[in-house]
Fold this protein.
Amino acid sequence: MTTCLLLSSLSCSTRQSQSESSAGAGLRQIVDDAGRHISIPAKVGRVVSLAPNLTEILFAVGAGNTLVGDTTYCDYPAEAKGIEKVGDTLHPSLERIIALSPQLVLVSTASQLEVFTEQLKAHNIEVFVTDPKDLEGVFRSVTQIGDIVGKTSEAKSLVDKLRERAANVESAVRPLPRVRLFYQLSAEPLYTAGHDSFVTDLINRAGGESVTASVPGAWPKYSAESALAAKPDAIILPTGGSMGEGNSMVAEALRNSPAAQRGRVYKINDDHLVRPGPRAVDGLEEMAKALHPDAFQQ
Amino acid sequence: MTTALLSIRQGRVTLRKTMVWCAALIVALLLTVLIAALIGSEKLPTNASACSILSVGMNPCGLTRDQLDILFQIRLPRILLAAAVGGSLATAGASYQALLRNPLAEPYLLGVSNGAAVGTMLALVFFGTFEWSRPFMAFVGSLLATFAVYRLGRGRVGATPERLILAGVIVTTLLSSVIVFVTTLMDATRIRSFTFWLLGDLSGANRRLLPLTISVAVIGTVILTLNARSLNLLMLGERDAFDLGVEVSRVRITVFLVASLLVGSSVASSGSVGYVGLVVPHLARLSLGSDNRISIPSAAILGALFVIIADTVARTIIAPRELPVGAITALIGAPLFIYLLKRD
């Protein structure tokens, strides 16, 4: 928190000096999810994305051509694989980013920030942080990124469509009783989605009720006996996407849960659940259909 | 060292004293197991749980099916694993310290734990489905690391404590970079599990490997205790021990093999739990004297106690979330160690 504040005040002071020196160059100011004020050209044409969800957002608003670098995790859409790789999300190569001379670097959490913001700033490269905590946050990311790359109307129509699909799901499941479920991010050690995860919001919208919804943090390591005692009626396993089949078995503590006994264990493509991008709505639909098949029978 | 000399000269320490101490410590251990089993993120009825545990699960004592599962499928296996890991690491530490005549010799500081960690990781990357490969590769890794440190630590004038610790630092850092390199070979989901596991984590109390970890802990402790008299003599120096009839190289190889096996089996099941091998043997020697015939078996039991308590804290302090047990052993161990150093 303090670092965030510190960084934002730092970026404020540099921003002022920068906008003074390049006044009239068409710079404008925006605020990112970390609360930092950054100044960017009116239309950004060269972007590096450091997370697969941000790459997906860029392509979805029709700005794939602005992408000059992305990570080895960026595998969707297929064109994203052909973009120059700058490393993976956790270990990007600063040199390669600078060599690509982007105007803006998109990052998905503030944790990556401290490492290179200052160094990139020295090369006139700004860093934009997204940190969506719910589906609204994902829509906000889409709108902001669309705005940054000059695709405001495309982003708006994309968000409108996504919002409509989400609303359809929600109205279909609203009359139905909520399904108490456990979201198993990994079995050993047992990780789940906590209060700050956008997945918890997706679960709510899909007519579920996460038994770990009030646990602090986004991805907490969870007590096996608490998972057993929660007796979930359903289990969601994000698996089968780019993270492989590693998470396709229910944790030992949940083998005798009502969910496992009644066969209510649902595997959902992890790319739709762990990436806060446009496909999160796919994840929402898949989860809702798994939890409430009767509501979607037409 | 002088206390060791004294106790050997006096020859007062008998099998009987060892037995009495170990019996007392075992009672304390059983009590700790019972109490730890009554504490957890889920509240269970205390009397009924105690009743059921004391009947070894034969009598449900009115507990529901879920409560029995929590008690016997989740908590007790984890507590037993904690005991086996703590006992293994403390025994290994006590034996390294006696053999190498170095109070700082410890699996973690010598790089032996890291050797086992590299072995386990390679087993997971290359033989992921074959889980018995993990303890085996961990054993090979810790054995290689032990010999590397031992060879590096021996100069022309023999192994000085400083040289040995420096060798340990070199091997530890080298293996740490190997670990970082191996994690890049893994996919994103595995990396998350690994960072947790590397800090020492007992939540994956693997049912199939648990009997192996416990057997290794018990058998290893017995073998090392049987070598304790030779280790006592070795503390006088290898030449003197040899003159007194100790088969120095046989004892050395036995200790290296058995201690590596102990470290390997505990790292394969729970990652690198630090400080146990350092703090616990010191505690045992300070309170019970430096005769290895007492300090090795009592270090084993105290180690089991220490890790059970640390893990009880790790799984309850921010419940229902959990901390890695290695973070707790370090939090308790480091200040305790500083205190022990200051007291000397």
User: Anything to note?
Assistant: The beta strands of chain A are 27-31, 37-41, 47-49, 67-69, 104-107, 126-129, 179-183, 208-210, 234-238, 265-268.
